[in-house]
What we know:
The protein is α+β, with helices and mostly antiparallel strands. It has 3 helices and 8 strands. It has helices spanning 7-11, 20-30, 133-144, and strands spanning 3-5, 35-42, 45-63, 68-76, 84-90, 95-101, 111-112, 124-132. Strands 1, 2, 3, 4, 5, 6, 7 and 8 form an 8-stranded mixed beta sheet that branches. Strand 5 and strand 6 form a beta hairpin.
Amino acid sequence: MKQFHGLGALCQSHHGWLKPQDLANLLLDDLQQCQCKIFGCIGEDDKILLATLHLLPDDLRYEMFDQRIDLIVAGPILRNDCVPLTYRLQGKEFGISGRCSVIAKVCGVDLYLQRSYTCEIGDIVRQKFSIDIKSLLKMKNFIQG
């Protein structure tokens, strides 16, 4: 299940009512050096790093009309001895984690890895993320209230 981390810490520096543009600006700054790590598991070891993806230059943007942040991360596949099961996108404070899969329509998965995840060591994986600002604002207000 998708989880959001560090939203409260990210918004702590902002005083007053947080508007969508304010949260977007905080996230844009926070995610400038973000990474996405993809993990698999073998037996009891559930944190086997399969790939580390870094933000592509100029691929972090705020879509004002849709009130969402889009970003693309990419990096090489490091291991292929197990299937990808979990991921963590992490900025300075804010992060998203959850279950992932290369197989479409797997129950309980919130991130389907794009076709570029070939499971071949050295191949470059590209993954797009969209972060809905309105949903995060509702979540932040629920946590505070």
